[in-house]
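DM from R.C. (forwarded with permission)

"hey, sorry to bug you on a friday — could you get me a structure for this? deadline for the figure draft is monday and I only need the backbone to look sensible"
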Amino acid sequence: MAEDNKPFSMTRIVNWGDCDPAGMIYTPRAIDYAIEAVEEWYREVVGISWMHINFTMGTSLPTVRVECDFIRPPYPRSEIDMRVRVESLGKSSLTLLIDGLNNDGEPYFKVRLVTCYISRGEFKAVDIPGEVRAPIAAYQAACGD
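My reply, with the result:
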């Protein structure tokens, strides 16, 4: 749960292998970092892993839209604070905002991920299960989003 109305965050360090020949983070890695943060957010905040959602609950959670705005480039050894917030919680969709921030709280990049809960067998949208919806809604409220 969000403590003191602070969003969930995790630190990611930029490795040399995450960078392009110019020594800046390779563009798609920002989206990878965001997805890693969301996966950890599910475990820590929602209390359910993506593996559980996919293989135990009979649902899946594909990303249906991604937006990424780059503000400044992180370089190797940069520490990035990956913060996850809920923008909207729909009937079957969930929109998350993931900010990649430097140590001063200034943004490197901002990612918006839209996911949709689907049945694995039929590949059709389904309602977000209550055991997933309740902690997400509580987190959203605790963060003031």
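R.C.: lifesaver. The radius of gyration is 16 Å.
me: no worries. The chain has three helices and seven strands.
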